[in-house]
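Field: COMPLEX_INPUT
Field: COMPONENT_COUNT = two
Field: RESIDUE_TOTAL = 870
Field: MODE = joint
Values follow.
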Amino acid sequence: MSSTAAAATIDHHHDPTTSTGISNKKLLMWAFLASDCMFFGCLISTHLIYRLHPPPGTLPAKEVFSIELTSFSTFILLMSSLMMALAVNAIQKGNLKSLRWSLLTTILFGCIFLGCQVYEFRNFVFEKHLTITNSILGTTFFTLTGTHGLHVLIGVIWLSGMLIYSFTGRLAERDSIDVEMMGLYWHFVDIVWIVIFTAVYLLEYL
Amino acid sequence: MEALAKSDFLAKGEESAKPLVLWRPTAKTGLLSWLTTVDHKRIGFLYGISGLFFFIFGGIEALLIRIQLAVPNNTFLTSAQYSEMFTMHGTTMIFLVVMPIGAAFFNFIMPLQIGARDVAFPRLNAFSFWTFLVGAIIVNLGWFMKDGAPDAGWFGYAPLTTRTFSPTHAIDMWVMGLQLLGVASIAAALNFIVTIINLRAPGMTMMRLPVFTWMTLFTSFLIILSFPAITIALVEIMMDRLFGTNFFEVSNGGLPILWQHLFWIFGHPEVYILILPAMGIISEILPTFARKPLFGYPIVVFSGASIGFLGFGVWSHHMFTTGMGTTATAAFALMTMAIAVPTGVKIFNWIGTLWGGHLSMRTPMMFAIGFLWMFMIGGLSGIMHAAAPADAQQHGSYFIVAHFHYVLIGGSLFALFAGIHYWFPLMFGRRVSEFWGKMAFWLVFIGFNVTFFPMHFLGLEGMPRRTFTYDANMGWNTGNFWSTVGAFILAVGVAIYFSTMVYTYFRGERTTKDPWDGRTLEWSLPNPPPEYNFQVLPTVHARDGWWYEKRHRDEVAREAAEHAKAEDSHGGIHMPFQSIYPFCASLGILIGAIGVAVINPANPALYPGFWGPKIAVTILGGAIMFVSVVLWSLEGNEGYHIHLNKDGSIRGEDAHAGHAPGGH
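Field: COMPLEX_OUTPUT
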């Protein structure tokens, strides 16, 4: 990233910033995402393993899922990643106005995704009678997608904080690393969703 | 980007949003100074003290176990109490003793070894410690409640831990406490990774890092990659217990074997999380007291890396008897044998370090050589388990108990004792008595072997683990009797060791800088190290940087003077502000965890609908945590500058609130 190239490397004539030139926050986020990969990896594995051993009388997942709705929300989430990338770009150029619009759109798309998920959960529970307790599919499905939804929710709250700070002056060009770090998180949550969409939904239609 | 390119110290004039600071604690002594500290040395000290405190707990549990097993058909403990003892002994010793004492060294020593003034995220570091403490409290809360302590083994195999078979809150607390310990460990490990990669002093290239720092890095990677597995397993069991999900509910299609896989995907790397820091400590002590550089430094480093890497591919050797099938069993047996290779390489490197050295047999060296020998015995019995058919005989027997105590006491604990003794003069400026140190060593060494060597034979004669008593005609009487005698010798040795430490802390002989004629940068500091660590950030010219400095004094003094001038003109030494919010956030977590794990669900007659004490307390805790985190972020990562006199005393502090270096 352009922001890192400028940071000082090993140069003792200046005050130390970092040894690698990568900011600490960014490195922290990368390491955290590595850890988060393992969290999701374990949940996705749990789902895939249990998928192979359905107890007799289990509702087939295909009869529960509504692939049209999920495809739509997946598309929305992917588009939010685009807006997130634009937000990072905007703050790096110091364009606060563009930053605010991009953040707002990202938040909006995140909320649409969450809304779809709430609708989907309600539909599964009340119409399709798939609950977290009544079957192994419900258990793994709601836990996995719920955990992902929680990640999106945290991201939306975080983004909203940034949007507010961009008005109060707390977030400005000097803080572009904060937005970039948020962007890493947001893109990661999206990528995980692509894996979940494939492994949980699309796999059932093979 | 332009803003980033500028140094934070130079950016004084730049407009910056005023942080929202409700309270800036400045206490340097007293309780408040400890609650608000962000100093890595103080946090390291807190980790160490907590670890030693729980060591007493775990030790007493071990002695009670040994008293119960001293004679056949003993009724000293009931079987239920015995289950609590071995569960809490294992949980305590692994999560609350060896890991925090390791973390104490990571915190205290690692930043000094790389020539840094603190870790990358000082407040996150404080948060890690307080959350660790919260987890430790939650796990141990059961002792004071009628539900009792957790009693399902440190591995907590499902379905034993499900609501059906463990209906009390004991397991809820174990599940909750371990999740928090995981959060604390991951947060700390992320911090160490960033610190080691980003805060190295000029010239401290990766291949010049002291081996202990390398092992800290590998251990941290193991922590961030393995703890998620147990956390997810714990989340799943918690969901089963709280919300009635089916992860481990066999009647609805749950597979308890999944718990074992998830647990050991964490559990085996955990073994290396416990031993790699020990290997790092040994790799520091042997060169210092053999008075020559570590033999084959790159090989030692890369063996550490390959141990960490292979450590993720051997978990199922804990499950050879579960019927995984021939292919899986063969693959894991092969991997297990493979991981012995880098371990063996390290042992040869340590022997190579000793070979031809001028050995100075001080107490740390005694423990280090004890480590080498005892760890090797534990390693050799470990390779025996790698052969799946042999393991089928040894599984669940005292042979396994003997094996892992040889690697965890003879390995980890010996090294931690060596490390405490070795770095004590640096931490506290006092020297531990050699007589009492060696006395403790010999008692620990003899007691340890008398306790655990007979267990090999007991295991091969078929004595099962986790069984609270045995019949007199099984042929296990002599072995068990001697084992108990040994446990008490070991306890006396440990008691002498720590009494000596406590005495030395208050009354010990004062020592000069660099008492062991050390090789790495931490010894370049006065003892105890000042809060800012380095008066001038060192420039590293070689591996064993301090050794080089001692032999190139003029060059180093010239450099230091230049750097000091440069640094002072940039505003002086940057110090992070103290903060209470990490403590508050952990306090919120404690309250929330009590809500989740301890309080009974509301009686519907008293509290109709959703609300009840359980929900209210949980939400209250969560809210406290959330508010603390928000205030933490609004407070900003700022600090003040201090200016030093030539002798290192503080000439003045200036209240300018600059951002932390690299933390923009």
